[in-house]
Input
Amino acid sequence: MVLLASTTFSAAWAQVGDMFQEQAREKIELQKMHDEVKDIKSTINDAVQQLDQVQSQANSANNVHEVHLIAKEANLDINSKTSVACFTYNGRMPGPEIRVREGEIVRIVLHNQLRVPTSLIFHGIILPQSVSGLPRKDSGLVQPGASFIYQFAAPQRGTYWYHPQVVNGDQKARGMFGALIVEPRETASAVEKDWTVFLSDLSVPETGIPTTHHPTDFARAPQHSIALHTAEPFPSLAAAKVLTFYLMNGKSAPAIPPIELRKGERVRLRVINAGSQTVPLYLSGHRFEVVSVNGGDQLEPHLFRDTLAVQPSDRIDLEFSADNPGVWSLASEIPLQATNQGHFPGGIACVVRYSGEGGSSSTTGSAPLPSAP
Output
């Protein structure tokens, strides 16, 4: 009996030992599983961080360039004597200049704060219908208080511009336009100053309501302050005499800032005619080199002119060498366009001067003709 009890006790104790060993093995396995889970979590975290880095790099590589345009009414001083309420982008005329590089992703968000619908087209760029075609139902026609997103990859280099579609063409005539410049991928260039010059005309009856009609004789028309407060797309023309103001970057001489030059500089002027009339533009003392017409069309061989007729909607890239120090002018050759209703100075007439000539001048290389002040 004693031997049997001892044998039974030994067997039971062995079982207990086996159980402890099993528990120890399970504990080791659990620890291994815990360590593996930690490794998995660490790997997942690393993967998420790497994914974030990849996404960040992708966004950086895509160079998404986002711009917000706010269509709104604003009273603008076109010279010291005349203030006109216009349709604008971001309260400016012209609207903000958009500069991107070839292949860069452009995202333009249009917010309509007008009291009428508006739209947007990117003039000269070949884009899909969904981006730049005529507005369709629920697409492209932006109602008052609404917003719309336009996104595309910038095409070939060139000078383009944006403005409302033809169905809202009166809004363009009242000041809604801006430059879209697509620069080449490579940055090497002999050009040291690159300026955008918008030409336009703004017609306003003496009642203060703008129109696209143009006068034939305003020699005795007075200059005064005009404030317009209307949202009608095509207001009545039944009222008084019409005044037309000819503008360079939204200003009429003598309010146009001078073009400041340094001797020896290579200068590019991107001239855009947002108006309804042809403008024969003349730079005294220099000769233009016409390097591009209407976007990316590079002209070879280049044409040389001292006067260039810029047709409505034309975009012409001109270059010249600042090699003739003095004080000159960049102006229309049509007297009516280079005056304010026959009064000089006025209209499209800008002083061009070299550093140290004709008063103080900028030496920083910044553009004296900002399209977006």
